[in-house]
Amino acid sequence: MNLTVSFDREVDARWIASVAELPGAHAYGTTHDEALAAVQAIAFSILADEIQHGERDPRTVQSVVFLTDQAA
To answer: How many domains, the chain?
Structure first.
């Protein structure tokens, strides 16, 4: 499964990372890497919850790759 992470920079210089394929998967960080790590953790949590509740076939997430766009 490929997940696309996009980044933006807030006026206060914080980074925000979002996963396009998972609505609601957004995270802030003081650095680009911190925002990426935070949104990856959120994405895994969402995927685990979906599997647990029968909303996603676990075979579809045996491999997860995070693809990132260029930083804003």
So the answer is: 1
Q: What is the pLDDT along the chain (72 residues), one digit of tens a residue?
A: 999 999 999 999 999 999 999 999 999 999 999 999 999 999 999 999 999 999 999 999 999 999 987 654
DSSP string, 47-64: HHHHHHTTSS-GGGGSS-
Residue 51's domain spans which residues?
A: 2-68
Global confidence as pTM = 0.89
Q: HSE (CB half, 13 Å, CA atoms) of 23?
A: 0
